Amino acid sequence: MQMPALGGSHGASARRRGGEGETTDMDMRRNSPWLALVVLAAISTVGFIDRIVVNVLVEPIKGEFGLSDGQVSLMALAFTVLNIGAGLVIARLAERVRRLSLISAGTLVWSAATALCGWAGGWIQLLLARMGVGLGEAIGLPSLQSVIADYFPANRRGLAISILMLAPPIGAFVGFVGGGWIAQEYDWRFTFLMAAIPGGLLAVIAWFLVAEPKRGAFDGAAADEDVPPMGAVLKRLLGLPSARNLVFGSALAAMLGFGLNYFFTSLMIRKFEVGLAEAGFYAGVIASAPAAISVIVSGMLGDRLGEKNPAAYALVPAVCLLLGGPIYVWAITREELVTLLALVSVATFLCFGYLGITFAALQNLMHPRMRATAYAVLQVFYGLASAFGPILLGYMSDGFAASRGEVDGLVLAMAITGALYVWAGVHYLLAARHYARDLASTKGASGA
């Protein structure tokens, strides 16, 4: 794919340092869309690894600190506590300053906090360290999609942001498989220490090699330097019918996915008595390969079909979620391990295709100086969803366990959770009804 030149060649002239997108002859930063996409996708992946690696460590942490399913699920809430509020504040700053600086700094912070998780001497210390991971991601992640949206035109953002959103499936594979193996061979604490290393390296790479793109280079409002107020962002996200349903549908799907992934290794260990490394391998493969393929395919379909019918950006995930929910319920109740894994793989392929295409659809509805803030507002919904999903499932499991036992209680809780994907699919159908009209209404509009 040949991309248009952006902002002139690197080193063409000596410019003063300090403004957005500005470099000097001595600057190593490259104004390359694909370099930026690769580096930022890697950072996003590392962030997801540091977020999700606790999932494979649920059983050893639960055992060491003597916790219930409900209590151990509070690690998800601890991550969210600072992530939500700080993310909104940082995002408003990101609309005005160099975004790559925030990305680099945030990556360093959450990597250091991940390392501290491995040094935690007690349950409260571990929760505080997880809060630090959430704070670092609040600093570093809101700007990612904004940067990519300024490197790629609207009709290529579906694929570009889908590549960026490969972070969850790839991060899940590395977190589950690598984390499970390290925890079994060494210790769960060592898993956190190893997970912290890549982020520090990528923070340096992003700082020295990736240039800040010009905001709105491919949008009608490119010359508008005014930062729209928060109310204008909320008006687009929650006032436009299509955006509102995309937000609610994706947040619900995220809640369900975080809950199911949080306890999937526990299900393998309890029901089929497999080892921690083996359970992590199953969970990692299922949460990565099918989801990664789905994210890319749905993004490509959105770009291809969306040229003639913009509603495709909502219809593609709608169909996937409406089919995926019932399949997950059927899968999770199977008594044969191979059958369960095969069917969950199919359900995962269907239920995670919403990731990239949803963000692309929402970014296309946003003013160029709304995008970091829009991402942060979305993270409020997703943060609450990621915290509430494991808690909801964990306490349902505890409740059902009283009468059905620990294994069947968890199976029933996961089946109910999987069935709710249909609800998310309905929101995408509603979004499809309004998306073309809403998109047309925002073309060339100001930040109001």
UniProtKB/TrEMBL annotation:
Topology with respect to the bilayer: Multi-pass membrane protein
Gene Ontology MF term list: transmembrane transporter activity
Chief localisation class: membrane
Region described as Disordered: spans on this chain: 1-27
SUPFAM superfamilies found in the cross-reference section: MFS general substrate transporter
Database matches in InterPro entries: MFS, MFS_dom, MFS_spinster-like, MFS_trans_sf
Gene Ontology CC terms, in alphabetical order: membrane
Record-linked Gene3D superfamilies: MFS general substrate transporter like domains (1.20.1250.20)
Protein name: MFS transporter
Major facilitator superfamily (MFS) profile domain sequence ranges: 36-436
Keywords: Membrane, Transmembrane, Transmembrane helix, Transport
TM region(s), chain numbering: 34-54, 74-93, 100-121, 159-182, 188-210, 246-269, 281-301, 313-331, 337-362, 374-397, 409-430
Compartments reported by the entry: Membrane
The organism's place on the tree of life at top rank: Bacteria
